[in-house]
């Protein structure tokens, strides 16, 4: 078979053109696929970043909760240790009281004479018990607090504003917290709670005493009608449980401000009555 040079030269442009058309079609077909693939990858990366942020936030929340639980556990362990110590002391006192009672019965019963050795032993136990428990039962630490505002309040305080009596010269039992104005009952019992507030001329202040968020008493001081300083006192006698929270707050928004200086102190006090 013989192919002439002139025939091949005639076919060469046709083949070259077909090659370029084929390459162009391939490029146009591949370019959209690449863009779609790139967009899908970017979408997946965005989702992964979002999931990572949500996971990080969830981990932070879990860490915070764990820290709170650990702190609460430590507080409970400390409280448990204190209660165990108190129980052990009470048990020791009961044992001595029981021993004292038995010894006293033996010494007072003439029909049951003691041998000299037994009598000396019982007398020693009796004397030891008397030294430990004393002639009378020991009284618990008194609970009483007294606090007052060191300066005048800001004017026109809003409704339900908690009044923080920031000076606390007396705090036996450590129940009052001057940083937030809350008295936390150190022991269950009947308490007397009293508060006195002064208002600047043309002022109006209405307050209430709350126990665990429930109002149990109120007081009103109104000097709107004149230019003088007025005061009012509220007093509540109520039963409190261990750890109950007591505080003073505004029942309505105040007019003017609460007055407190050396000659007219606004105060909050209380003590365990029984």
Automatic annotation (TrEMBL):
One of its GO terms (biological process) is maintenance of synapse structure. It is found in: Secreted. GO terms for cellular component: extracellular region; synapse. It comes from the Eukaryota. The keyword Cytoplasm does not apply. Pfam families: C1q. Residues 138-274 form the C1q domain. Residues 59-93 form a coiled coil. InterPro entries: C1q_dom, Cerebellin_Synaptic_Org, Tumour_necrosis_fac-like_dom. Keywords: Coiled coil, Secreted, Signal. The keyword Coiled coil applies. Residues 1-28 form the signal peptide. This is Uncharacterized protein LOC111101482. It comes from Crassostrea virginica (Eastern oyster). The gene is LOC111101482.
